[in-house]
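Per your request, structure below.
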């Protein structure tokens, strides 16, 4: 039998209580893919990095909502062009 380890995350801080670096700000600090895509011109990734606030995942979700509202205000609903903004 292989030596395996598993972690089941229950949520609501259980992972953080066990010392696992899964806080919102730790995600930004260690997300090389997010930084890479932002540097390549991905506007969503750039927006996330430029507007990070707070320490909770709900802060990220609020930022995504604001990004969505901004592109909808700019391009309107159901506009394919907004997907490349």
């Amino acid at each position: 039998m292989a030596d395996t380890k598993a972690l089941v995350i229950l949520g609501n801080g259980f992972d953080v209580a066990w010392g696992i670096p899964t806080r919102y700000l730790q995600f930004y600090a260690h997300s090389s893919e997010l930084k890479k895509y932002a540097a390549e011109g991905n506007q969503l990734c750039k927006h996330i990095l430029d507007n990070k606030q707070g320490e909770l995942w709900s802060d990220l979700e609020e930022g995504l909502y604001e990004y969505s509202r901004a592109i909808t205000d700019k391009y309107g609903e159901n506009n394919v062009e907004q997907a490349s903004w």
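The radius of gyration is 17 Å.

Regards,
D.
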